[in-house]
Amino acid sequence: MKYVIIGGSAAAISAVEAIRSVDEHSTIDLFSDEKIPLFSRVLLPYYVAEQLSKPMLNFRSADFFDEFKVTPHIGVRIESVSPDANTVQTEDGNTYKYDKLLLATGGDAIVPKIQGVDKQGITPLKTIADADRVLNMKASKAVVIGAGSIGVESAISLLKRGMKVTLIEQLGQILPTVFDQEAASIIQKVIEDMGVEVITGERAVEFKGNSRVMAVATRDITVDCDLVLLAVGIRPAVGLARAAGVEIGELGGIKTDSRMRTSIQNIYAAGDVCETFDIARNTHYVNAIWPMAVEEGRVAGLNMAGRKAVFPGSVRMNSIGNFVGFPAMSVGVTHPDECTYAEEECYFEEIKNRTKNTYKKIILKNGCIVGGIFVGQTQKSGIITMLMRKQVDVSEVIPALMSPNLNFMDVLPVLRRHGDIFAEPEFKEIMDTGL
Ligand SMILES: Cc1cc2nc3c(=O)[nH]c(=O)nc-3n(C[C@H](O)[C@H](O)[C@H](O)COP(=O)(O)OP(=O)(O)OC[C@H]3O[C@@H](n4cnc5c(N)ncnc54)[C@H](O)[C@@H]3O)c2cc1C
């Protein structure tokens, strides 16, 4: 058997480990067009803040490829895939045959079509090359465009480097896809107190300057700067897949089934490049987060090696706490209207609890949790996430779920009533305690 993996990050490495757990001897060729292998993208904001050095970004040790008997092709880009010939072609014209191929090409940073976007001093933060570019820029005034998680983290990173930082978001709140307005306003106050200037409801329309950026203009204001970090989103990198005839879903990711198979035989996909079933939304969605890429890679790898494994569905999770120094995380949807595939007869409830320093919200669909927001206190949010994954009716334990003293024992009645769904040994053990 010959395995070929395109990509060298979360999904790819997880797939390698899964393949080797089943198949010790077949060849694995792994291609990554980034020059440095085995670094964690999640840690790039810490690198840009000069809090972590390059070796500290590694999520596997340097001898990983030897240990797992992988032939790495680092800094090598795959130009095309030929499903009829079962081959991939590198940019320098070499061809490699595969029996099983994994597309783990991740996502590309979106570069918005704004006038002047090609000036020097403007960059996204996606690759290690982007991070090095930001690190090497001698700038004193930065503007970050887009206040999603990466934008907020980047703004704080640049602040930690001693720059004056302005964060511009076109929508009416920061972190618009991962928190609701109320949570976002609490977090905005925290980052403003740290020293970031936050401007919402303004859209960048021009980057001013000659060859180097000198200012960002919106319709109403102009902000001087010598560095612009673009954080307007990541889009699945499906160019290779599309050209090879692999089916792309409505949301722009590779369409996969629950075993991470694509529409073409012997080609699998995992990670940010693909759409998978999202448990809360009850439809396919691109949940571009590290833990989902790892899990999808694991399922793909096992299936590639002949072991039947099923991906149970993805769950969005975002935590901004480490960066803002204040606990804040969310899971699933943040508003009921994100459940666009809700059946007609279903009903939603939003239950909120606000104290001076905390905010907690859960969103229920027909009594099952489809989203949660935890600000100021995130302990025990894992219990709510676990109940969301299982999509069981939690109506009878809502007061306990909203309590700051939520305890695992409080949800035992739900686990017991759905013993068939909580069949894993860890749940059985707890239920067998007789408490
Ligand atoms: C700055 C930043 C911070 C983040 N923070 C968090 C966080 O706090 N928590 C979280 O859960 N997630 C976070 N993420 C998202 C997380 O990093 C991704 O979900 C995860 O990296 C996805 O892994 P992946 O393997 O699918 O793809 P990627 O990590 O995108 O890797 C894909 C790899 O494939 C390579 N590739 C693509 N095409 C080719 C080709 N044709 N030939 C060869 N190689 C190719 C790419 O260059 C890349 O190296 C963050 C992302 C960024 C950019």
Summarize it:
The protein has helices at residues 10-22, 44-48, 64-67, 128-136, 149-160, 181-194, 239-243, 290-304, 321-324, 381-390, 398-402, 412-417, 425-431; strands spanning 2-6, 27-32, 70-74, 78-82, 87-90, 95-97, 100-103, 107-109, 122-124, 141-145, 164-169, 197-200, 204-208, 215-218, 222-224, 227-230, 234-236, 254-255, 267-269, 274-278, 283-285, 317-319, 328-332, 348-354, 359-365, 368-375.
The percent of residues in helical segments reads 25-40%
Q: What is the CATH top level name of the largest domain?
A: Alpha Beta
At CATH level 3, the topology of the largest domain is FAD/NAD(P)-binding domain
Distance between the termini: 51 Å
Strand order of the largest sheet: 3-2-1-7-19
Question: What number is the mean pLDDT?
Answer: 95
Structural class given helices, strands, pairing?
Answer: alpha/beta
What's the topology here?
Elements: E1 2-6, H1 10-22, E2 27-32, H2 44-48, H3 64-67, E3 70-74, E4 78-82, E5 87-90, E6 95-97, E7 100-103, E8 107-109, E9 122-124, H4 128-136, E10 141-145, H5 149-160, E11 164-169, H6 181-194, E12 197-200, E13 204-208, E14 215-218, E15 222-224, E16 227-230, E17 234-236, H7 239-243, E18 254-255, E19 267-269, E20 274-278, E21 283-285, H8 290-304, E22 317-319, H9 321-324, E23 328-332, E24 348-354, E25 359-365, E26 368-375, H10 381-390, H11 398-402, H12 412-417, H13 425-431
Parallel strand pairs: 1-2, 1-7, 2-3, 7-19, 9-16, 10-11, 10-16, 11-12, 18-20
Antiparallel strand pairs: 4-5, 5-6, 8-17, 13-14, 14-15, 20-21, 22-23, 23-26, 24-25, 25-26
Helix pairs in contact: 1-8
The structure holds flavin-adenine dinucleotide.
Residues 6-12, 31-34, 41-42, 44-45, 77-78, 104-107, 125-126, 150, 237, 240, 271-273, 288-291, 293 line the site of flavin-adenine dinucleotide.
